[in-house]
Amino acid sequence: MKTPILGSSYVARSVNAADSRMVNLFPEAVPEGGKEAAFLQRAPGLKFLQAVGSGPIRGLWVAKAHTDQMYVVSGVNVYKLNSTIGTPTLIGQVSGTGPVSIADNGTQIFFACNGPSYIYNIDTGVFGPITDPDFPGAVTVGFLDGYFVFNEPNSQKVWVTALLDGYDINALEFASAEGSPDGLVAVNVDHREAWLFGTNSIEVWYDAGLADFPLARIQGAFNELGLAAAFSVAKLDNTLFWLGRDDRGQGIVYRANGYTGQRVSTHAVEWQIQQYGDISDAIAYTYQQDGHSFYVLTFPSANATWVYDAATQAWHERAGFQNGQFTRHRSNCQCNFNGAIVVGDFENGNIYQFDLDVYADNGQIQKWLRSWRALGTGQNNLNRTTQHSLQLDAQAGHFMEPVPVEEDVFLITENGMRLTTQNDDLLITETPETVYVNPEPQFMLRWSDDGGHTWSNEHWLGGGAVGQYGRRIIWRRLGMTLKLRDRVYEVSGTDPIKIAIMGAELHGQGTNA
Fold it and tell me: Is 370 helix (H, G, I), strand (E, B) or coil?
């Protein structure tokens, strides 16, 4: 019978109710002609592009009118890179240590650093701080109809600069978001409208062309949902997403539906978020790849990353792997540069490309994991079952990542030709880039018979070497369910291989006990 390995991540407050974890895997629906209605594929790996300064990477930006240039905020330094991702050019310095909000007007790039802010003129190459005595500082910044729009730290005030000049601040060019007496946390411009996010409310303003202050409130566009983290707001799927809070609580993820917030997080994700304590430092970015639109939400203090896929409306965890433990994902921010999804490292100055054909994180292990209940919803009659075998319906005969050629190691090329090193009679004529080690990648299975509280040892099984596409992945003699008569399976792997899981078949036999 089919066992429900497909789906999304949903680990409930009680694992006895639901224990479906998914790390570094995400589902893709197959609308027609597929073996199954969906499959699970591996999250993209991190392909190293360049080291830019000492890091961390606090912001990435590609100017709208100059798409051949990328700007990187690494630590306190700001660099410019050209389309070839060549040697970074230092253009200036900023202050602070946290995320940097960035916007441009075609000529100037505005770097908001939670107070002090800076302008880079693309045409002249001049970089400098905003020194206008009327400038109150900026937390986040956007661009609307020629104006930079920003919120003043620790206030209710939203400001605009002079038209097409971020250096010029008029002392009268501000207004207060007073629909609610809460503080203003962030500003984000979407569809030529400025969304003003407070701690307990949201107001939406538009360019009314007024004399003293050009923006005005949109009547009826007031939302009694607030923002829990200034840098959790991000554009995706032609709308806005954010981590919410209000007078009643916090930890729900919303997307804008018109001028209202529509909940997209699940109870399971919300329960996880609410365990993190301080969520005000959460950061988010979005990206699109192969038609999947991802909202990536990281909690630095909690060392965790959650991802929502707007294409399937499914959540999964995205994680690094260090010292045998999952950690937050290494990416800190994102931009689309030369058709590549570029992300920056949260610890050092590395920038990477998200690549679905790379199966490691800059050479480090990327572990994937999926746990699910052996029996589908409503199928458990609370009797013991003998679990004869579990077959994973997954792609076998995997393509392996290239590795350095070492002496006295058997090698295999991508076309299946078996070769040895130069110490033997046969010589390697291929370049190292086309030579691959030939071990079988391992799939690790373990299970829990008490709903997910305790687990068995891992049972390892080979998934076929390069070219062995007919290999079946079957674990046999899996024992009998005891205790709660409820089994949860977990399969995982760490090898740098392509992963595609179409399903799993469980052969079991019920009892009357």
Answer: strand
Cβ neighbours around 290 below 10 Å, total: 9
Distance CA(118)–CA(275), nearest Å, equals 37
**Cα-based distances in Å from 325 to 47, 365, 368, 457, 482:** 22, 11, 12, 17, 29
Give the CA dihedral 333, 337, 339, 340, nearest 10 degrees: -40
Q: Tokens standing for 140?
A: 């986040």
C-alpha atoms less than 13 angstroms from C-alpha of 488 in its C-beta half-sphere: 20
Q: Per-residue confidence of the chain (513 residues) as pLDDT tens digits?
A: 899 999 999 999 999 999 999 999 999 999 888 899 999 999 999 999 999 999 999 999 999 888 999 999 999 999 999 987 888 999 999 999 999 999 999 999 999 999 999 999 999 999 999 999 999 999 999 999 999 999 999 999 999 999 999 999 999 999 998 888 889 999 999 999 999 999 999 999 999 999 889 999 999 999 999 999 999 999 999 999 999 999 999 999 999 999 999 999 999 999 999 999 899 999 999 999 999 999 999 999 999 999 999 999 999 999 999 999 999 999 999 999 999 999 999 999 999 999 999 999 999 999 999 999 999 898 888 888 899 999 999 987 665 555 444 444 444 443 344 444 333 333 334 444 444 444 688 999 999 999 899 999 999 998 887 777 878 899 999 999 887 788 999 999 999 989 999 999 999 887 776
Across the beta sheet with 473-476, the strand order is 25-29, 38-42, 500-510, 385-394, 473-476
Q: Which of 160, 207, 201 is nearest to 178 (CA)?
A: 201
Distance CA 61, CA 500 (A): 33
| Residue labelled with tokens 């602070």 | 96
Q: Is the pTM of this model over 0.85?
A: yes
Among 344, 346, 431, residue whose Cα is nearest residue 49: 344
Provide the 8-state DSSP code for 38: E
- State residue 37 phi and psi, 5-degree precision: -70, -15
Say which amino acid occupies 449. Answer: D
Torsion of CA 130, 136, 138, 139, to 10 degrees: 150
Under DSSP, the state recorded for 434 is: G
CA neighbours closer than 13 Å in the CB half-sphere of residue 263: 9
Q: What are phi and psi of 305, to 5 degrees?
A: -135, 130
